Amino acid sequence: MSSLPSGTHKARKRFGQNFLQNQMIIHQIVEAICPKKNEHLIEIGPGQGALTQPLLDAAEHLDVVEIDRDLVQQLKMQFAAKPGLKIYEGDALKFDFSTLKKDEKPLRLVGNLPYNISTPLLFHLLRFTPLIQDMHFMLQKEVADRLTAQQSEKNYGRLSIMTQYHCATEMMFYVGPEAFHPQPKVESAIVRLIPYRKPPFHCVSLARLEKIVCQAFSQRRKTLRKSLRHIISADELIRLDIDPGLRPENLSVKQFVIIANSCT
Hints:
By secondary structure, the chain is an alpha/beta fold. It has helices at 23-33, 52-59, 69-78, 118-125, 141-148, 158-166, 206-218, 224-227, 234-239, 253-262, and strands at 19-20, 40-44, 62-66, 85-89, 107-112, 132-140, 167-175, 180-181, 188-195. Strands 4-3-2-5-6-9-7 form a seven-stranded mixed β-sheet. A two-stranded antiparallel ribbon has the order 1-8. Helix 7 packs across helix 10 (253-262).
């Protein structure tokens, strides 16, 4: 994200860098987040600080996680007079976000997530949902559509189900390529994820749920009878009031949890 003079830092493809520079979009994002003083905000991938400045102005304290060491140095110089900013150099995919929890305040996560790692990063962040109040992310529109897709829609899949088990999801607004430098070849979107304090459906084993969902969608064109035959029989699915002739995208989150809970 860019607030420094153009040319100060060359975007690196290996980090999936596209810096946000449209001030109207930045204002919309900050307005959607509505940061307040004394909240614990964490920005993932601050880049050149386009969102960092308004977030820090509103909250007064901000933790950021940045993998690019050159940008870390730029941020240190840019915000040298802002003691409320703490910069952590590291890979968000491997970062233990629980180490940032210092008191009773829940974490509020924000970020323009690199397109090349957004899906594995989202799965990583789901591990920390008990500590998180909400998450606002800029994502590739395709990923945002998958996050918010509902049962039987074409984008509904593994990411939809596992995210929606943990969080209420909401599409906020779309962002065109022209809002970035360099311009990506895809549209982007802002999504809001609000972790449930108590999931609507209790799953005995999240690892088992993940395995079943992964197996089902690895062969998404096949019926449950075929894709899950090594995990659960068609007769058992019928006993659970689930039609084995359905495809995985036709099942709700609740139904996947029912299957997982039956496979003890």
